[in-house]
Amino acid sequence: MCGIIGFMSRKKRMIKGDKVAIALDSLKERGNGKGSGYVGYGIYPKKYKDCYAFHVLIDNSPKFEKIKAEVEKVLEQYGTIIKDEEIPTEDGIIEKVHIPWRYFYEVDEKYADKEEDVVVDIVMEINDRVDGAFVISSGKDLGVFKAVGWPNEVAEFFRIDKYEGYMWLGHARYPTNTKAWWGGAHPFNLLNWSVVHNGEITSYGTNRRFVEMFGYKCRLLTDTEVVAYILDLLMRKHRVPVEYALSALAPRFWGEIDKMPEEEKELHTAIRLTYGGAMLNGPFAIAVGTPHGLIFMNGDIEEDTTMFGLTDRIKLRPLIAAEKDDMVFVSSEESAIRKICPDLDRVWMPDAGMPVIARPWK
Amino acid sequence: MIPSYVPPKYKVEVDPNKCMLCERCTIECSWGVHRREGDRIISYSNRCGACHRCVAMCPRDAITIKENAISWRSHPLWDIDARADIYNQAKTGCILLSGMGNAKEHPIYFDKIVLDACQVTNPSIDPLREPMELRTYIGKKPKQLEFDFVEEEIDGKKIKKAKLKTKIAPNLKLDTPIMIAHMSYGALSLNAHLSFAKAVKECGTFMGTGEGGLPKPLYPYADHIITQVASGRFGVNEEYLMKGAAIEIKIGQGAKPGIGGHLPGEKVTAEISATRMIPEGSDAISPAPHHDIYSIEDLAQLVRSLKEATRWKKPVFVKIAAVHNAPAIAVGIATSDADAVVIDGYRGGTGAAPKVFRDHVGIPIEMAIAAVDQRLREEGLRNEISIIASGGIRCSADVFKAIALGADAVYIGTAAMVALGCRVCGRCYTGLCAWGIATQKPELVKRLDPEVGAKRVANLIKAWTHEIKELLGAAGINSIESLRGNRDRLRGVGLNEKELEVLGIKAAGE
Questions:
Q1: Distance between CA atoms of A72 and A84, rounded to whole angstroms?
Q2: N or C: which end of chain A has fewer CB within 10 A?
Q3: Is Ubl conjugation one of the keywords UniProt gives this record (chain A) (predicted)?
């Protein structure tokens, strides 16, 4: 189960958040009201555009102030909080077991050469060490909003319609292997990587132990978290070109590799040998929002945000892609896309394990 | 002569109503249990090791072997074994020898671990209809891949293409994660080795030479053979090193950690003398340590020397016995240019070991795999080196569990011998193996047909491979990479908290 929807404007036109909520609401039967979430890219005003926007879930308990102070202590170690506030929410819709708080934040100049590593360290430190607080979003000019509830409830609760973004991802959850809690809802985010996922990662134990070797700490109790960390490791830290990184997640079968020309064979063998621990197994369809500065296969540095969809190698979960003018969509079901864009130029079902990569037009 | 006070362990009976006096049993039994006296067969039960050769070959099903149900006063501390050992040592004044692996009733952790399977939310995968990948590469892997970006002109457009910069070191390609362990030519017969060699070639996997060198009849299979360099350096020369697909340095062995080996002179026939490069009839003694290795730095030097000698074309493995310090040693091995660490658990077999070592020294392989894998991960080294586990792997579920605990592949020794007919009678050190496996006596060796033996061993590997595919499919996994170190797919039954912690698994129901 689980329903996913993602879309982006290749012209980077701003689209109101109610669109993603409407589309996701039509997938509500793929969830069970135990978790829904959204991520919008480009949602923050110019003033905070270049700041890291930390969205933190803090337990709504008498210890709230103490936990918040702990979070701020970690943040202040490495930089400056430019502004912080409670994320605006609508009362009376869902039980507010956590208070969502956001910090617009700048990393100290002395860390300029490893700014993103510092942000990753902050996320890991808060998630691992601060009892009662979890960072659910840590990118620039983007934000994750998630909670336990139906898609329309979570959208209403976070007033998603008040935000505008050029790329949105949404997720309706049907938890199957871990408990339903706010932090376990999707999207999972690290820096500018945001992942929504339909399925179950049966290789989770291998994947988790693989990323742990590189300092990541999986503390959100859901298998999807590890996907965000793998992407960060492969594409940001190891600078593996995106197509090859996705090939590490859903590698070509040995039977296919054996038939490749020599150079390609060597490359894909090297990917499987080096990144076997990053291979995702089990049923999955994922949609991912990606960050600035990707090196694509053609070597150009893409300075714009990108989205991709990817399924497992034998396609045990559905994924539909579609295009209309400057818009690209991926979703679990075509109906969700047509709900917000009835006339599509092209609809297709991506092959098993083959990524759909949507990049902005230049 | 001091008489033995130990009563026979088994009782052998030949039913005179069924026996047709063909005397086959008298020929088949290499220990001389049966003898014809007049019109009946007399059996000396005290010579019997329950190898079943006579039973299997009797055309009239006339022979019965039972445990000798002689009464001993029962005692919780002074059990029969303890008393029998004392009688034997009081008779001989010698170290007690034994074969095969640890025979104590310690917990078998493999049997206290159960596997997970998919139900509904994550579909199981049907290996008959979907690809199921067991291919495994053993050897050094890079920490990360690096790419060069090269400008190429395609259709008049200049496009930067990513080219792989990293060169992958030579790895062994296994079609199944099951290899045959190192058992030396000398301990085993040539026909046993030929059976293994033909089987591994057919199955796309590898066998080890053990420390006995590589006999010429095995040369055609050399690209499926891992040569061993042990402390005795038997048979080691450039040709030997270049011939195999990989090299293994043996530091220790699960059945006898901390000691060397001994092949009695009577087993050193002309062929073995030529292969081991020692005089015919002389004892082949492997020292306890390598006399050029007294530190991890010395080991690193030997690894590099072997790599230099083979032009850096062959992966080099290092085998150690599973002991409590194995994780730290494995870290040293991982930083020494070695390509794989082999860990041999205390249930690992042997031709001959002092019984006191076999039963009391070392640790279970399950614990060792988990601890070594965990430590290598903590050091950020796990991805760069392979782990091969051996010692007491009895079935495909053991292979599966070993890989889920953290191994890349396993070696099987006793199981491969059992496929050839071995009864685990534990008397390999006598050289009288009635099945032609652990012997050099030509009349016994010829009992093992290498073609039939190869078929049986290949069948075993293939059967386990099928079962592993089914288990993987049930776990919703279609590639062995996703099983490696995937302890989430395991649960412990009847284990205490500390044992669960060392194994890194949850309790059943969690």
A1: 10
A2: C
A3: no
Neighbours of A60 (CB within 10 A): 14
B58 is in an annotated binding site: yes
> Do residues A106 and A161 both lie within one domain?
no
Please, which pLDDT band fits residue B162 given cuts at 50, 70 and 90? confident
Per-residue pLDDT band at A296 (split at 50, 70, 90): low
Residue with tokens 């050190």: B429
Tokens for B200, please give them: 């591994």
Question: A187 preceded by cis ω (within 30°)?
Answer: yes
Tell me, yes or no, whether A99 and A245 share the same domain.
no
- Domain residues for the domain of A73 are 53-81+91-139
Those residues with Cβ within 8 angstroms of residue B225's Cβ, 6 or more apart along the chain or in another chain: B197, B200, B206, B207, B208, B209, B214, B218, B243, B244, B245
Domain count across chain A = 2
A2 is catalytic: yes
In this prediction, residue A292 carries a pLDDT of: 66
- Cα-based torsion angle of the residue sequence B259, B265, B270, B273 in order, rounded to the nearest 10 degrees: 30
What are the chain A neighbours of B340 within 8 Å (beta carbons)?
A: none
- What is the predicted pLDDT for the residue at B1? 67
Write down the pLDDT at residue B267: 84
Domain match, A128 and A146 both: no
pLDDT of residue B326: 97
Q: What is the model's pLDDT at position A295? A: 60
Q: Is B12 helix (H, G, I), strand (E, B) or coil?
A: strand
Write out the residue range of the structural domain in which residue B207 sits.
Answer: 176-260+295-421+429-507
Do A130 and A145 sit in the same domain of this protein? no
The verdict on residue A110 lying in a domain is: yes
One domain for residues B212 and B353: yes
pLDDT of A297 above 60: no
Same-domain check for residues A169 and A253: yes
Mean of pLDDT over chain A: 93
In a domain, B337, yes or no: yes
In a domain, residue A86? The reply is no
pLDDT tens for A188-210 read 999 999 999 999 999 999 999 99
pLDDT on residue A303: 62
Write the CA distances from B341 to B57, B69, B216, B375, integer angstroms: 42, 45, 28, 13
Please state, for a pLDDT cut of 90, what percent of chain B lies above it: 87
Residues B494, B497, B503, B504, CA torsion sign: positive
Number of domains making up chain B: 2
Q: Inter-chain contact A253–B131, Cβ cutoff 8 Å?
A: yes
Question: Tell me: the pLDDT tens digits for B232-278?
Answer: 999 899 999 999 999 999 999 999 999 998 888 888 999 999 999 99
Query: Tokens at residue B42, please?
Result: 């007399």
Residue that has been written with the tokens 């840590």 in this structure: A138
Domain check: are A57 and A159 in the same one? no
Structure tokens at B503: 């194994």
Q: Decide which of B94, B128, B157 is a domain's last residue.
A: B94
Residue B144 covered by a domain: no
Query: Known binder of ligand: residue B19?
Result: yes
Q: Would an 8 Å CB–CB cutoff place B341 in contact with chain A?
A: no
Q: How far is B176 from chain A (nearest CA, A)?
A: 13
The CATH number given to whatever domain includes residue A130 is 3.30.70
Say what the pLDDT of residue A177 is. 73
The one-character DSSP state at B439 is B
Among candidate residues A334, A351, A330, A353, the one with its CA nearest the CA of residue A343: A334
Residues of A in contact with B159 (CB under 8 A): 298-299
pLDDT of residue A227: 95
Residues B198 and B90 in one domain: no
The domain boundary residue, chosen from B28, B61, B94: B94
Per-residue pLDDT tens digits for A107-130: 999 999 999 999 999 999 999 999
B384 touches chain A (CB under 8 A): no
Give the separation between CA B212 and CA B278, rounded to whole angstroms.
11
Contact B485 A316 (CB under 8 A): no
**What pLDDT shows up at residue A299?**
56
